[in-house]
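Support request, please re-run this one:
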Amino acid sequence: MYGRVSLFVTCLVDQLFPNVGLAVADVLERLGYQVEFRPQQTCCGQPAFNSGYREEAQAVAEHFIRVFRDADFIVVPSGSCTSMITHHFFELFPAGSDLREEVEYLAPRVWEFSKFLLEVAKVEDVGARFEGVVTYHDSCHALRELGIREGPRRLLAKVRGLTLREMSIAEECCGFGGTFSIKFPEVSAGMARTKIESILKTGASTIVSIDSSCLMQLQGVIARMGVPLETKHLAEILASR
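Re-run finished. Output below.
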């Protein structure tokens, strides 16, 4: 065993995409890690934070800190949630606040899934096989706040049977943006349609990302457009044998 990993599963994965959490655990266990799930976990506080409810976000963040304060590593299948914890917890608990030291201790142990594989486990080939043509969508938080771009592509390149084809606007937003998609549904849907049109030109049948929120947004518009595309989290691809 390489050590103990705590899975912070995120709200969307817990409620809507449980297979993503199971896939993360499968890959990590395959690599020799002991994976634990702490049932007391809830949310990282991002929905409240992004909506301007700082006190409510702080309360949720405090709970996160209590649940995971003794974890060796916290692995998160979401660039968005990882960014909230490692970047914006510092805004919720500024210098001099009671929990600032705990945030400073916790943040370096929180890892987005693909970064954990490459930088902690130090592997690119996890023994996966997936037959098909895929294209990769760069989620906004992962790309712009965590600097994640080449890593997921390196992992996909080692998957047997998989062909990766880049879309022309891989780095453009899918239109989800949390409450943005609710407040501006026409704009949000238009952004997703533009993205899907670019994806169709690649000839790929599967869209891969490291954020289930982006994939949920795209899958909803795909269903309404009636086009032959599916969405998969990177962990689901890497868990395929």
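Residues 175 and 190 are 8 Å apart (CA to CA). The radius of gyration is 18 Å.
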